[in-house]
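Protein: LysR family transcriptional regulator
Species: Pseudoduganella rivuli
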Amino acid sequence: MHTLNPQRLAIFAAIIQAGSISACAQRLGCGKSVVSRQLARLEEELGARLIQRSTRRLALTEIGELVLREAQRIEQALANVEQLSGQYQDQPRGVLRVSCSMAGRKLLVPLLAEFTARHPQVKVSLQLDDRMTDLIAEQIDVAIRTSSLVDSTLVARKLSDNPSIIVAAPSYLERAGMPQAVEDLQHHACLLYAVGSRVYDEWAFMGPDGPYTLRVDGPLQMNDGGSLVTAAVGGAGIIKVPAPLVRDEVAAGLLVPLLPDVALPPGPSNYAVYPARAFLARKTAAFIAFLQEKMTR
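Structure follows.
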């Protein structure tokens, strides 16, 4: 048997991860024919077919499943070696791929100038997306998330709490009046966060007997918290958001806090999430430490 080419094994694993040869080629930045040729040569070296090509979707053969397991181990070993070499560099360097929600950009983006000034050898590539990004498949080094961690292949470091606040613009309050009690919100234009068909129209409060919810409604639904803030500043209605997202607007008088005597449960905390690896690259460790320094309260 010929000596196996590790690069071809890695490409084989990448094909399965991407879901198709064309998607793999696009992700690797090469032609589809290059990927197909590398797969064919690997099968020739092994003397066995790894992927059935009779269906539109990829289907692994029995030996293909076994080879994939070993290919993934090689891929992880190469990643560990890369992280290990990065661990012993004099200073953090390289491209740091970061994922963040559209709303979270308001907290994160202002910090990036200071981070890159501290670590001039690091280039930050920021991906803004409200979907739950697959960090490993999309090669993300760090994600800023506000959701519970359910993937055991990931590590989460808490950055900050998210106290909630209810606010509206002075122009809206002049037009619609100031709510005096929680129940008054049902008669106001409440701006709602929505993702797909799910609308977050039940706002949570803390009462003497414990937490309770109130269903509200309004003219606007958006999947971006930052845009909800912009709409509220423009006088479109009332929003309930994490306080850090509107700190500047409240300080400038563009938004006014409502129902100050009503207790609100905190929103989900902010976390730095990254793939669990035996060796953490200096660029990643430096960025997480920086975020903890700047955001932890």
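Remarks: The longest strand covers residues 154-162.
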